[in-house]
């Protein structure tokens, strides 16, 4: 995918002494931030190490469960997320990427109280859909119960004239949630089988593309090639690409906005 | 490998409000810190997200080339590394792991000037060799020219009564360095073929184990199963395990030392 991006600008090829620093809020899912950082490197069109995007990452997993809080039966993770953003800002971060789909439920609070621009993963996904020429039809959405309930993907799809298809309650219980649990338990073959079924079921219901909007699901799908692969949009990778575009803009203008 | 570690202590299972924070100095190799963080998660014997090791990572690749500086024809990366350690310390890090083998050339300077404990990747490798029952014989070493010249692996092996075998100059030029370059260029199949040959050549010269002491080489070896796999010690993974052991000790004692 890196190949489809235009080459880095002359400004970025000769980086200034202090290029814009990206803050990565991680710790939500043990592998999510590491996977995001790997995709950030993979997607960056760099010809040498020094052309990669500079970042500082906060990966503190001692934070209340996000889906439980959204579903109304758990402590809010907002104070811990704000603590992370404060640490990233203190370290010099000029914009924030959140390496967790569900946590975007608190995007507006974090933006208002954190004092830094925050790239939105669902905007990044919509931009990638547009880049792939997908401007109409129904988009499948594979996500946690918290992300589905939060509704920010569905709202952003609708704003761009796209419909949204989610897995049935039964498919979520027997395919999506067990796939996520299997990734967390490091059982990628099982996770792959379940996630591929979930994607193909959404495709069978009329989805022309399927967004993997939970950081565990791309790890499950990418474990092996399958019929699901060309249908999928990896939200983590979309966010990485949005961060690279932010960095290019901020390097040119000297502004982080 | 996580299975061979004892379960987390009761202290860690019920984490305190502010468990010890690990600082990760990255940005040296575009994928090195992401790979280290993934291995840190994989090796942690956690049954839920909140039991993973909290970290803050500094990944600023705008830093002078390490091997060039060691070989005497490049600017020193020490000031930029100290800047990273200062940012990590400011963010609350209580100990540092450096996700780059070659950068350990500056370990003593960073320890003296950075003001934080720094786990040493070669000590971590020696501990893992001992854990595997390797207390005698010759250890193969696959590394950059800078790491080989720096000598800290060879010295630590010798201190534990182990010999060291490095690839011939010819094998380094035709196998090791091209394997590293192929990982950086995202050509893992080529990198794998070259790295496996380099490992098997060291084994043929009498190495009972081969340490992959450049963060790119484990990515090359792990691309597929091969005869090299059981011979290899991944220095990145060894460092991750040392960090988990540090975190367990620091959680118990309340001290970061």
Would you mind describing this structure in some detail?
- Two copies of one chain form a homodimer.
- With 257 residues, chain A is of the alpha/beta class.
- The first copy, chain A, has two domains: 19-120 and 238-253, Rossmann fold (3-Layer(aba) Sandwich); 122-235, Rossmann fold.
- Chain A has helices at residues 10-13, 32-43, 66-70, 78-90, 107-114, 121-131, 145-150, 152-159, 169-184, 188-204, 216-221, 235-253; strands at residues 22-25, 55-59, 95-98, 138-142, 163-166, 207-212, 232-234.
- In chain A, the strands form two sheets. In chain A, strands 5-4-6-7 form a four-stranded parallel sheet, with helices on both faces. Chain A has a three-stranded parallel sheet with strand order 2-1-3, with helices on both faces.
- In chain A, helix 11 links the parallel strand 6 and strand 7.
- In chain A, helix 4 packs across helix 5, helix 6 crosses helix 12 and helix 9 (169-184) runs antiparallel to helix 10.
- Chain A is globular and about 50 Å long.
- Chain A binds chain B through residues 15, 17, 19, 21, 27-31, 33-35, 37-38, 40-42, 44, 46, 49-52, 54-63, 65, 87, 90-92, 184, 186, and chain B through 15, 17, 19, 21, 27-31, 33-35, 37-38, 40-42, 44, 46, 49-52, 54-63, 65, 87, 90-92, 184, 186.
Summarize the structure.
Chain A is of the alpha/beta class and 257 residues long. The first copy, chain A, is built from twelve helices and seven strands. In chain A, helix 2 links the parallel strand 1 and strand 2.
